[in-house]
Amino acid sequence: MKRVRIGNGCGFWGDSLDAPIRLAEHGRLDYLTLEYLAELTMSILAVQKAKDTAGGFASDFLDVLARLVPILNQQAGLKIVTNAGGMNPHGCAAKAKSILPDARIGIVNGDDLLPRLDELLAAGHALTNLDTGEPLSTIRDKVVSANAYLGAKPIADAFAGGARVVITGRVADASLTVGPAAYQFGWDFADLDKLASATVAGHLIECGAQATGGLWINADAGTGLADVGYPIAEMNADGSFILTKPPGTGGVVNFETASEQLLYEVADPARYFTPDVTADFTSIRLTSRSRERPESDEVHFSSARANGITDTYKVSIAYRDGYVSAGTLVIPGPHAARKARHSGEIILERLKAAGHTFAASHIETLGAGECVPGSQKADPPEVVLRVGVRDPSRAAVERFTKEFAPLVTSGFPGTTGYTTGRPPVREVFAYWPALLAKSAVQPRVEFL
Length: 448
Hints:
By secondary structure, the chain is of the alpha+beta class. It folds into two domains: 3-111 and 149-310, no CATH class; 318-432, Alpha-Beta Plaits (2-Layer Sandwich). Helices cover 27% and strands 24% of the residues. It has twelve helices and 18 strands. It has helices at 19-26, 39-51, 60-74, 89-99, 117-122, 153-160, 175-185, 192-205, 255-262, 336-353, 394-400, 407-410, and strands spanning 3-8, 31-34, 79-82, 105-109, 143-148, 165-168, 232-236, 241-244, 272-273, 278-280, 285-288, 299-302, 305-306, 312-332, 360-366, 382-391, 426-437, 444-447. Strands 11-12-8-7-1-2-3-6-4-18 form a ten-stranded mixed β-sheet, with helices on both faces. Strands 5, 14, 15, 16 and 17 form a five-stranded antiparallel β-sheet that branches. Strand 7 (232-236) and strand 8 (241-244) form a beta hairpin. The longest helix has 18 residues, at 336-353. The protein is globular, with a radius of gyration of 24 Å.
């Protein structure tokens, strides 16, 4: 193929259920990618699997797949790759097979390190926290999930083995695009510049509508976000590509939307680390065709270069770290922000008098410039008081939830917003980033 069209219809678990259907119907795709996983998602799925060994995957994918069946029947060449497998790719694939009984389904796994964690630690892999420098042994007994971010090669291998649907566990987001491109064009995985180009494409489309007008700084009522189209990377064999969206859909693809998404979640643009390649975003050349033809919704990307490759995988580890709760009240009237902050202090003071202090607490006055400090010049007529706490003791956090309603009669005049009941108590799953030698991980491809 001279070109391959890869579209992403899902940016996270909870994204639009209709977007993948519309993208597959109108995008003229060769590959549909569906990206469901984040660090928090993995910990949620780990807890789900602990409760039910048949679970632990992004169940929304199955609803989407069932709706895609007529389209897949009409478009014989359309293939799907998704990380919806989460903590249980086999379980997800088995459910998918019941929906597409005639399809060859590839499974990529090997990312789940939890069963091997003690073995790895004993072998000298300290899995040191990248932020704090602490060894994992300090919280080993609290760990609920540990997953390496696998790369694109097992995805390409699955397609080479005849898969129409590839379901993975934790892989790097951009690898969902790199894998199909590498397979389709027959790229050598030593050709780092081409992998870097596909990584750029994958990074651009991985968050769905963020590349097509969502969160665009100049979005307005005319941007058409109610009918926003999801992104497509039309890739060439040399690695260059066009970022676009289905014709006739809302949103916009232009220089601003493309460059804003390009720098999303990027620390060093010259060194964007993935398991496939370290991409140099500073080498990229962008040409916005929408400047010449506003209706085109196309941006051309070329000249992407690699900046080496690492010998490690990133590892995402989640561990239990106490309990959290947060509640809100509305405080209206003169000096609302000042009264709201004092109301929050009253809550914490009353709890301290009852014998409860917390590992962490936070008072916010939403509507008074809390999100952008210094932006609020006038005294707002009302604000939302939000107080949150975190602590190892569930009992202490539960006691905290009972101190909001009393302010309705013992606080400042007009205090309201208590009718939703006491705020819930949730368990905290903290994030532990680490690195692990690639030699210690063996990605596997199986077929169902």
